[in-house]
Design a protein that fits this description.
432 residues, alpha/beta, Urease, subunit C, domain 1, TIM Barrel, 2 domains, 7-stranded mixed beta sheet, 14 helices, 40% helix, globular, binds ligand LTUXU72L, binds zinc ion
Length: 432
């Protein structure tokens, strides 16, 4: 057994309290062996966490990681126009090579901001899986299925690809990669395909993940054409099971919050994307009070425009108060829980907490910074004041992915250069 001790830090425990302790890891099994005092002597190697906070690695519950290539490409538009006029025409030109370059850039950014796990819906998913495996992260990945603007055979082929990819990649990278069936949304995949293919996802035993109730433009047509709210429609299609998770959940009414709570379906809140696209304010406080598991996600870098979960946590706390018209709503402890265990539970990964036997997925935050001084409350600092650049070390599955800001699994300069080139190639192809 090879062991690593993370020493001298403060540790964020599962009950969202902080205590002074070392963390001892079994690097072969990728598990936490012990959290306690003076564990350095028991370890083969150490990682210094003096003046630092050791937190569970952050869990990004909803992303399109290769969209880093489109960061800053099309800003300041609402969702539907943004997708149809700018994003989808460019995405039509994606290749496995450009997706690899965008994914490497995205996972580099994640490692540098303390994220160790994420859920992702995109294209060229086996390529994304390889990049995630090489970078050392944990992820639940799926092919985004769309039927609009496709003929029947193309739509079926796309859905079949969604299932085939889910089967192919599940369990890759010693189990660090898992999969899901991912229809894009309730309005971009026709009901007949949902009815046909969702049961096949159940047979495969994978969860279903989709965008839901993100804008009023997505709610109105379903109410008008189906006569029910979108999440009641999703339930009719068999898409509201306890392992399923929806992204956004902005325009959900009380009946839909009740459906989510009853079914155990989770919601990934994406506050930055919801603000940037002016989609609306999700009723996070009400969903949490009703017992819905709420996680946090960045969405893609083109609608955020970064992949930092620390930014997302602050945004979630701020907009949560505004939405509830209550400064005590969505407090620091709630967003810290959402960015760790909440997202992990939502996307079905057994991580997001620091305790004996849990996966050794963690981030170490440097507290020796002016904006983290004084240290009245480290949970408050994590929610409101810490930034991506404060992350010192990142560890996933017991492996050190970043030590003292040096990423060990990716060559940072080369990744940035390849991504810049891929972005240029992509835009040039779209403008041809
Ligand atoms: C079919 S793969 C995923 C698909 O989703 C698009 N996308 C990115 N951000 C959003 C969002 O906020 N709502 C809906 N769809 C989004 C992405 O560009 C891909 O086409
Ligand atoms: Zn999305």
């Amino acid at each position: 057994m090879t062991t690593l001790a993370i020493t001298g830090g403060q540790v964020l425990l599962p009950d969202i309290t902080v205590t002074r302790a070392d963390v001892l890891i079994d690097q072969d099994d990728g598990e936490i062996l012990e959290i306690g005092d003076d564990l350095a002597d028991d370890a083969d190697e150490t990682l210094d966490a003096a003046d630092s906070l050791i937190t569970p690695g952050f869990v990004n519950g909803h992303c399109h990681v290769a969209m880093t290539l489109l960061r800053g490409y099309a800003d300041d538009k609402p969702l539907d126009a943004w997708l149809r006029e700018d994003i989808w025409p460019v995405e039509a030109e994606l290749t496995a090579d450009t997706v690899r370059a965008g994914t490497e850039l995205g996972v580099l950014e994640m490692i540098k901001s303390g994220t160790t796990s994420f859920a992702d819906m995109y294209f060229f998913v086996p390529t994304i899986a390889e990049a995630v495996a090489d970078a050392g992260l944990r992820a639940r990945l799926g092919h985004g299925v769309i039927s609009v603007a496709k003929d029947d055979e193309a739509a079926r082929e796309d859905a079949r690809e969604g299932l085939a990819v889910a089967e192919e990649i599940d369990g890759m990278a010693d189990g660090r990669i898992s999969s899901a069936f991912m229809p894009h949304s309730l309005t971009t995949v026709d009901g007949e395909y949902l009815a046909e293919f969702v049961p096949q996802a159940r047979e495969l035993g994978v969860p279903v993940h989709y965008h839901a109730n993100e804008t009023t433009d997505e709610v109105t047509p379903i109410v008008e054409e189906e006569g029910v709210r979108p999440l009641a429609y999703a339930a009719e299609k068999g898409m509201l099971e306890s392992e399923d998770f929806v992204a956004h959940g902005v325009h959900v009414d009380e009946s839909e919050i009740g459906l989510l709570a009853e079914a155990g379906t989770s919601v990934i809140h994406c506050p930055a994307s919801n603000m940037k696209l002016a989609s609306g304010m999700a009723p996070v406080q009400r969903m949490r009070e009703a017992g819905v598991t709420v996680g946090l996600g960045t969405d893609g870098a083109a609608s955020n425009n970064d992949l930092s979960m620390l930014d997302e946590a602050r945004d979630a706390a701020m907009i949560g108060k505004l939405a509830a018209d209550d400064a005590s709503a969505v407090p620091a402890g709630a967003v810290v829980e959402m960015m760790t265990r909440g997202s992990a539970e939502a996307i079905g990964l057994d991580t997001g907490r620091l305790e004996e036997g849990a996966p050794a997925d963690l981030a170490v935050i440097d507290l020796e910074e002016p904006h983290l001084t004084p240290r009245h409350d480290l949970v408050s600092h994590l929610a409101y004041a810490a930034a991506a650049a404060d992350v010192r070390h990142t560890v996933c599955d017991g492996r050190v992915l970043m030590r003292d800001r040096e990423v060990l699994t990716l060559e940072e300069d080369a990744v940035r250069a390849r991504a810049s080139e891929a972005a240029e190639t992509l835009i040039a192809a779209a403008e041809e």
